[in-house]
């Protein structure tokens, strides 16, 4: 057990899928895993471990925002031995050609700051995805005919953005979408020699203001989960 995870040693698989929403973790675990059991519910941050195609996998919530994700990623890697962490999240599209429910695979994540920012002092560290996971996720997405976009995203500290000028500059520089965790996930994973990737589903559009309801954000993103499972486990 750690401060924030009640799982016993050995209860967490080396491969962990991490949605922000703990109820998306429950939905995905019950839908996709065999022999799935609850391994954590401290603070309501649900985590489940089971198997997918016979391979062990944990699906564990990260909470919203990088400080929350950072706690879980650190404990999962350092205390439970997680080696592959794939975020399965929602995001807001920042380009005209992207549509609701499209899948985004994040090569890199720009951020004003991350909980790891202090380590780098004057350096602007560039958090990046694990290449093998990224390649496998894109292959899985293309094989199923998903509408998939691969590129940079923005990991924001805020959902309600008071700096539209910043988003405009990022859109202008080709950033595909905004979410709130990937930059710290990539940074923590890199620090500990683990593999990380974010596979996201577009839940709302910052240009058109189209948006999906919260029920879809909890239970409507099966394609993303399947792509993440295939990327993390299908190639091992
Ligand atoms: O759907 P999840 O994975 O929570 O991700 C996105 O949704 C939350 C904001 O509504 C933030 O956590 C953001 O990153
Ligand atoms: O962080 C997020 C997630 C979805 N949509 C947004 O606009 N921001």
UniProtKB/TrEMBL annotation:
This protein's record includes keyword Transferase: yes
Catalytic activity: a purine 2'-deoxy-D-ribonucleoside + phosphate = a purine nucleobase + 2-deoxy-alpha-D-ribose 1-phosphate; uridine + phosphate = alpha-D-ribose 1-phosphate + uracil; a purine D-ribonucleoside + phosphate = a purine nucleobase + alpha-D-ribose 1-phosphate
Enzyme class: transferase
Alphabetized Pfam families for the sequence: PNP_UDP_1
Active-site residues, record numbering mapped to chain: 204 (proton donor)
EC number(s) recorded for this UniProt protein: 2.4.2.1
Coiled-coil regions listed: none
Important for catalytic activity, annotated site positions: 217
Family annotation (CDD domains): PNP_EcPNPI-like
NCBIfam families attached to this UniProt entry: deoD, PRK05819.1
PANTHER family: FI09636P-RELATED, URIDINE PHOSPHORYLASE
Role played: Catalyzes the reversible phosphorolytic breakdown of the N-glycosidic bond in the beta-(deoxy)ribonucleoside molecules, with the formation of the corresponding free purine bases and pentose-1-phosphate.
Protein name: Purine nucleoside phosphorylase DeoD-type
Taxonomic path: Bacteria, Pseudomonadati, Pseudomonadota, Alphaproteobacteria, Rhodobacterales
Gene that encodes it: deoD
């Amino acid at each position: 057990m750690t401060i924030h995870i009640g799982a016993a040693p050995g209860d967490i698989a080396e491969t962990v899928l991490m949605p922000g929403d703990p109820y998306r973790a429950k939905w995905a675990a019950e839908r996709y895993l065999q022999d799935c059991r609850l391994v954590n519910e401290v603070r309501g941050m649900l985590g489940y471990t089971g198997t997918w195609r016979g391979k062990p996998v944990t699906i564990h919530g990260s909470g919203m925002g990088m400080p929350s994700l950072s706690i879980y990623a650190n404990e999962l890697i350092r205390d439970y031995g997680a080696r592959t962490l794939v975020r399965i999240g929602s995001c807001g599209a920042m380009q005209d050609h992207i549509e609701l429910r499209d899948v985004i695979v994040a090569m890199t994540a720009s951020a004003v700051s991350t909980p790891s920012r202090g380590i780098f002092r004057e350096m602007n560290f560039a958090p990046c995805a694990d290449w093998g996971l990224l390649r496998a996720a894109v292959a899985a997405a293309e094989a199923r005919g998903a509408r998939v976009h691969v590129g940079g995203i923005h990991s924001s500290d805020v959902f309600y953005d008071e700096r539209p000028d910043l988003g405009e500059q990022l859109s202008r520089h080709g950033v595909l979408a905004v979410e709130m965790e990937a930059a710290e996930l990539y940074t923590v994973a890199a620090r500990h020699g683990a593999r990380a990737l974010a596979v996201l589903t577009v839940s709302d559009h910052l240009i058109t203001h189209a948006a999906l309801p919260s029920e879809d954000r909890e239970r409507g993103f099966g394609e993303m989960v399947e792509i993440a499972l295939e990327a993390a486990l299908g190639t091992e």
